[in-house]
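Archive transcription. Copying these from loose printouts into the bound notebook so they stop getting lost. Printout 1 of 2:
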Amino acid sequence: MNNFFESKVILVTGGTGSIGSEIVHQLLKMSPRVVRIFSRDEYKQFCIQQELGNRSDVRYLLGDVREGSRLLRAAEGVDIIFHCAAYKHVPFCEYNPFEAVKTNVIGTQNVIEAALAQGVRKVLLISTDKAASPLNVMGATKLLAERLMSSTMHSIGSHNTILASVRFGNVLGSRGSVIPLFRDQIAKGGPLTITHPEMTRFFMSIPQAVKLVFSAAELMKGGELFILKMPAARVGDIADVLIEVLAPRFRYDPTSMEKKIIGVRPGEKMFEVLMTKEESEFATESDSMFIVSPYVDLPVQDPTLHKSAREKSVTEPRDSYSSDKVHILSKDEIRELLVQERVL
């Protein structure tokens, strides 16, 4: 994998976010020619610049994926784009749907058009489990972004650009996720606001997610959806573990920490689906991921490229891959994972 990124020019949209910044950090260990960090937040750009120091292999590009002309300039001479920029919070997208469409859908279209115009070799979209059978605006916009990546391959013509998507669940410790929220609430003495203790969610660490994203970037042939496997946990169990471990650090009695059930928020589900039953019919499986092939043969590629997935689907019926059907982490396993990934 180190050789795959060596001497490449790589653009990371949303490069100052939780996933994007980790992609940047990991890429810089693999001797790329240059990594271009593209985001609209000047302060976060300043922060990552202070963190990385003065490097000749990093460029800091202010811009918004909503602006196609800015992306066109940013993508000049680029070999690979990791498209991480997105609105990801379910309630905010639910109450601001037009804004979600502009960033998650139109922004993705702009990235694709810039990549085609500049001859970028590979573009990989970072998506979410909420794109599977979406119940909310955020999930629906991310599903459409995935379909743009796949369906554009049908009309790509003479362009050599390859497009694909990666889908995974919640990332431990990412900004705005439940664990930092619970940590802040515990530091203030509570209460912890829990939507529903039996709600289940997929979880993995940021480094794990990025490692599998890189694998997908190397494996992609065009039009695929890479669905990364991960364990699930109950929200109530995560809250209990964090209270047990963190409350004493902030000089609070864990047994007196209040938990307040606030109910499922608009657009949320009790469990999440990473891969639908319909998608599973086009999927092959490895130890770390499912690879969903395009539903229709791509005219610009070898028609046998994804043939194995379709043949397999005939003989091996599958089911959806959802957080209520996979291994649910025990409290001890949650604690071990949080310690192992240095989240606690």
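Printout 2 of 2:
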Amino acid sequence: MWFDALTPKQALLMAMCKLKFESLGYDTLLTTRQHDCTCWLLDELGIEYAVVGGYGGASRKGKLRASLERSMKLFKLISDLDEKPVLHVSLSSPEATRIAFGLGIPIILFNDTPHSIYVNRLTLPLASKVIVPEAIPSEAFSYAIDSRRIVHYRGVDEVAWMRNFKPNKSVLDQLDLSINDRIVLIRSEEAKASYYPSLKTYPTIAFAREVLKRRSDVKVVYLARYGDQRTYARRILRNAIVPSEAVDSRSLAYYSCLVVSGGGTVSREGALLGTPSICLFRSRLHVNDWLERMGFPIYSFKRVRDAVEFAVKVLSNPDSYRINVREQLNKLEDPVEVLVRVWREMGG
């Protein structure tokens, strides 16, 4: 079994897949690249992996060059194996999907990002099956794949690593925080992704700056994805904590009064813990809306000022917004179990 992970979220999902298939008796290989805290997460989980290539940055040329270089390295790694993998799985990795297809390896992909049009056009047409949360209609992927190859499940990707998650208080000591602090965890936007518009400023930083003005008692922890984001955040947010190194964001989300994310993953992780969570993304996300309808405390805003007004209400009485979501969480499907079922249906 060959798994590939390009981002922190993908590292968590592929790690869960790797552990599951190893428990079923399969030999596994997990490849990744140098990007954000991806390798750190795998190290924390005690997962073996191979680093192949790196991230190309924001520019088209940079992305293309990094992708081509990584493709050749993956080709050599996989083609030199004593036995060809029986299956490739990823959250739509362009390089790994292309190599698997070229080497005749069956492909099953996860995908919850129909807005990532360029990546999906490069990957989904090559997959035997694509596993998608039921929140996202098949029509959302019609530009890339026939709906008959889509397998829906009743859940979100984050269930795979959040259902049995146990928070660790040591993250508070690492950041010189107390369990009694009113913590706001903020994750920056994925500003260099192909689907993200160019930004003159970061909405999450604008949000943090305004909240700090309105609530001087709040401790803001700002987790940047890139060095330039980190530098900018430190210059603008003088009273915020902007870590230089990776931290256990899931545990921090548990001990926070509010989670805010410029993307979707961290806000969903927070909501699955029962922590009120805001998604500051340029458009509505099917999976977030679905979780909100299911009773999880996740809220979506396009405008910073609307998010700030809601945040001030939450921070005035945090306990009234935090809820016990254990019952709702246990009702959701684990995508890893869906993967196993799909693989068996394919004859694996």
